[in-house]
Write a structure and sequence with these properties.
This protein has three domains: 54 residues, no CATH class; 159 residues, Beta-Lactamase (2-Layer Sandwich), CATH 3.30.450.150; 176 residues, Serine Threonine Protein Phosphatase 5, Tetratricopeptide repeat (Alpha Horseshoe). Helices cover 47% and strands 6% of the residues. The protein is built from 17 helices and four strands.
Length: 422
């Protein structure tokens, strides 16, 4: 055994003995009042490759410079609606910048793309090609996002960080024309860094560090350009903030029927997973928020039923049909009321979802709020909101009972009092 290994092993063993020695002695003594274990001193383990792992990290200054330069380049290309994040390989944020008009979801998207690239050591545009089929895949891993816009940063071929851009549009076309002035690929940049790093003219430590910092910054900016470039046929973003995301959604690139159908189904799946970042990305790519799956769920209807408020607000901003109905013939407001999603009900009412709609079962939102839950504080709050929005408690269910009669029959005195006081 090497001397360093022996020293480390001896130090660790000594620490363990010191930690347990007092307890063992007390147990052997068999006394009812055992002495407290002696204080354990710190164990100084010698630094050696066999015992301590060294981690490479991008410095705070270089991280800040990288995201600042990447965002500036995107803005110069008339893409002000993006966020840029740089994370270490474990996903810890090193630097983050959000464009002036970037939506909230772009922050999470940038972080997830950066972490995905760092963790897998490959650009997310390449990783996205490995996600196929409908079964479980690497795309199901928490905190990852397999969409273009993430690039790994490597030292000696080992991924140490990732940089990601969230909110940049993704173009869809079959045969892209060659770019007029292609930028070096990330691999080419890494090769250039390696060659320059070994050049003999960098003879001093200070000059080498300064050159490496400059090359790192250039590499980060160039690597992010792919995520910030608009594709053929994709409309330019507005210079001023849009009145709503719905306006931006109407300006999505033209998609084929097949592509539109696929995006719509991906959007529904993302909504059902409550993946806010992916929902925002898919809407930005032109996904139809009113598309439905085989059981008549849309991203809007499902988010409303389950109380996924961030997803719900994204779909509403993108033009969701507030009068659309699910397989039971009910609006999003009816299951939201049944489940007692207080804030969701508030959002849906403000959006103009019909308050007195009757579903195929013969129930309104108020009837379901009473009949299918426990009459507790959340249900009371929901009924209060429905009444304030103009809900008619006189509408009868298939058994001929009004909302008040059902509340009294079930012993929900607080709800019955709310209805009487309207």
């Amino acid at each position: 055994m090497k001397k360093s290994n022996k020293i480390a092993a001896a130090a660790a063993a000594a620490g363990a003995l010191l930690l347990t020695g007092g307890l063992t002695a007390a147990a052997n003594a068999g006394t009812s009042q055992a002495a407290a274990p002696a204080a354990v001193p710190a164990v100084d383990i010698p630094q050696a490759p066999e015992t301590v792992v060294a981690q490479n990290r991008i410095t705070a200054g270089a991280s800040a410079d990288a995201v600042r330069a990447a965002l500036a380049k995107c803005q110069a290309d008339k893409l002000p609606f993006v966020a840029v994040a740089l994370v270490d390989r474990f996903g810890t944020v090193q630097a983050l910048l959000r464009g002036d008009n970037a939506a909230e979801h772009t922050i999470e998207a940038a972080q997830q793309k950066a972490y995905t690239a760092a963790a897998f050591g490959a650009p997310t545009s390449e990783l996205a090609k490995r996600v196929n089929g409908n079964g479980p895949s690497i795309a199901d891993l928490p905190g990852t996002l397999f969409l273009p816009g993430g690039v790994p940063l490597k030292v000696n071929g080992v991924s140490v960080a990732g940089i990601g851009v969230g909110g940049a549009p993704t173009a869809t076309w079959t045969k892209p024309a060659p770019p007029p002035a292609p930028s070096p690929s990330p691999l080419q940049l890494q090769s250039q860094v390696s060659r320059l790093g070994s050049m003999r003219r960098f003879r001093t430590w200070r000059r080498a560090r300064r050159a490496a910092a400059i090359l790192f910054l250039a590499g980060c900016v160039s690597a992010c350009l792919a995520a910030c470039q608009e594709g053929p046929g994709e409309p330019q973003r507005q210079e001023s903030p849009p009145a709503s995301t719905a306006t931006a959604a109407t300006k999505s690139p033209a998609l084929s029927v097949e592509a539109q159908t696929r995006l719509g189904q991906e959007l529904i799946a993302a909504a059902k997973a409550n993946n806010v970042a992916l929902v925002g990305e898919l809407i930005g790519r032109g996904a139809n928020v009113n598309a439905k799956d085989a059981i008549q769920d849309s991203s809007f209807l499902y988010a409303g039923a389950e109380g996924f408020n961030e997803v719900l607000q994204l779909t509403l901003a993108a033009g969701a049909d507030v009068s659309s109905t699910n397989r039971y013939g009910g609006t999003a407001l009816i299951p939201a009321s049944e489940h007692g999603h207080v804030e969701t009900v508030r959002i849906l009412l403000a959006a103009g979802v019909p308050v007195n709609h009757v579903n195929n079962l013969g129930w309104t939102a108020m009837q379901e709020a009473i009949l299918l839950n426990n009459g507790g504080p959340r249900q009371q709050d929901v009924v209060r909101q429905l009444l304030e929005a103009g809900a008619d408690p006189g509408i009868r269910d298939p058994q001929g009972r009004t909302a008040l009669e059902n509340a009294e029959r079930l012993g929900f005195g607080e709800i019955a009092a709310l209805i009487r006081a309207r």
